Amino acid sequence: MSTERARDLLNYLASVDGWVTADELAGRLGVTTRSVRNYVVTAKELHHPHDVIETGSRGYRLQHDVFHAVIAASDAERFQSPAAERPVDRQRRILEYLVSLDDPVNLHSLAAEFYVSESTLESDLRRARTVLGHSGLALGRIGSELRVLGSEQDKRRMLARLFLDAQSRQVIDLPIVEAHFASPPLGQVKTLILDGLERSGYRANEFGLGSVLLSLAVALLRMSNGQTLLPATEGSPTDPALEALAADLLGPLVAAPPPPEVRHLALLLDAQVARPTDGSPAKADEPVVDAAVTVMLDRATEVYGVDLRDVAFHRRLAQHVVNVLGRAKENLSSPNPMTKSLKANYPVVYDIAVFMASTIGTRFDVQLDENEIAFLALHVGTFVEQRSPRSRRLRCAFVCPDYYGMHAFLRDRIEQELHDVIDVTSVVTRTDPDWASIDANIVLSTIPAPAGVSDVIHIQPFLTDDDAARIRNRVARIHRSQRRNELKQQLLTYLSPEFFVVDLAATDDTTAIRALGELMVSADVIDESYVQAALEREQMSSTAFGDVIAVPHAMDMTARRTAIAFAVNKSPIPWGDNRVQAVALVAFAADDRAAFQSVFDQLVSVFSSREDANRIIRATEDFDTFLDALTRVMEN
Asked: What superfamily does domain 286-387 belong to in CATH?
């Protein structure tokens, strides 16, 4: 238990850039500060002689460079180690061993191979059956003889998945792939693929390319053992240029590559890597997808109040969805290292992507994972960022006594450097301005303001880079303050004592959503269908943002009135792969859809600061103390 807790502690420290106090760690882990000290000792012992945790008067801080170097080395070593480090590692290795074999293996021999008792092995096999069942495979057993049953293609997918599950990062490290599957240098193969795609008029999807190289490494190992694909009875036709590229790639690696292997590699390139250039002819299924994307964008625009109807965006998204469906048909997925970042920093964009994934899944009877959702979010975020207006320019007053027209020169310089953030609406050229009568969001002055006059930025007669930086920083602070004040008023409107709970009795995300949902159902704010919709949304992608807050909600704004049911827990609630101490079940009415984006974004933003979140959680004893703490944090 202490080892697992030590790993939890390390994972939490890895998500933070600076120092973390013992109190904060104790709150995150649901233990005492004394236990935290013990877990730190255990964590250091796990990685001895490397000093991965720095201890000081401010608490504990992870040495990120050292830690990630150790993890990268341990990833490579673990794949070659005869002994599994943890039960989950052992279970993964047992699965890989079973999938790799064509012949049955004896239960007693398998237990001896992995140095475990037969009772432990039986427990591991129960988990293996569940994992295999989710991948189209099954564990056959006759007496003490075991064998994995299923297609060669599903077995290869399982081997690739097991490899990815063992990775510490969501990035496919080619040297580790090469070492694990005894493959040829994959960097050279990657270069050949990129060159071949360019010759054939395609752009390359770098994220998908790593997955194709992993699949190729698995395929080469299987083919070397005589385990080849059967001829396909159906499947989407591929571009002859991609089939030729696949044949060129396999030719030097495999003697007489079987046609099904060439075709399958071409399918992988088509679904995961090859991206058409602008003006490329549409694929056969694109008209159907095009119509579905039109409906999807119209519906997303209606639900989220963000206009997504644009011809160029529609075209790019339709092409992407065609490839999404191709990957789903082949049961393929590419790890996206930006998933967590997109989710944490652009929650509404990510939520729109979840909505799109749900729509695509329903329309085409496929299921999209979080990696695919993140790729959709990249498309949505890029479009929204391009279309969104820049921050509103602040009204600026400029005080500069007239001296041979110096004020005009300086004003021109200010407007040239800062035209995107301020609008100079008034110029005062007197040495004795009436400071109280100046009406502006921000005042710039070349002369010192008298005592008692605040919010004036003193600048030099010739604008310096430091002046420009200070002005931009002040503008950003003013915008931030304005947004926080707006959000504070909205939250005060939507929060209420009847929907507030301290230490919610919940064992996981499902029980928490049901408990908070029941409060609003009883008050006739929502009905049971909204609670069920929130649970379904949660199953698509967790609404936990780090290890602080979860914001569950349905994708349709069907509440009778807008309200937020809020829970603050001193001990964390398990929430998917996270543990959260604050839960905000958000129910929006259609009339308030315009406020959804600001409330959602800013609610996540407030609790994204661990220091601020801890301050709120520690101070909360009831609804009033929660509001006081929340208000103080937002005002600061």
From this structure: PRD domain (1.10.1790.10)
